[in-house]
Amino acid sequence: MSEQLEKLLISSKELDQELLATVLVDLVKIDKDSGEIRLTTKALNLPKRLQILVYITGRKAAKALDVIREERISPKELASKLGMGGGSLRGQLYNLCKERLLEGVDGKYLVPNYAIEFVKALLDEASRNER
Description:
Blueprint: H1 3-6, H2 17-24, E1 28-30, E2 37-39, H3 41-44, H4 48-64, H5 75-82, H6 86-98, E3 103-105, E4 108-110, H7 116-130
Helix pairs in contact: 2-4, 2-7, 4-7, 5-6
């Protein structure tokens, strides 16, 4: 196999922890004892759609840090954590899945590893628009 082509190979199971940290650094804090994800003020000022992505991406980091057992989260638990109504949240989750930014598995949601770059791009765009 060509060396050039081999550079294109990735594993969907590999997590780019450096990218993950870059995305979340100013947006979440993770309680090392409870694994609780806490959105920063900066994250709370984002549109709800992005808050959802940040929170669920934060769970990916908490799982990678081994402070929680389950990365996926149910809509009910997510609504409680973000203070959102279930109806509007489910609509957001549906749209985020349709855009392939989230994956639904057994009624619970996670950000797939490949989508972290897209989450970063959305957050960068929101940050530029804020200025």
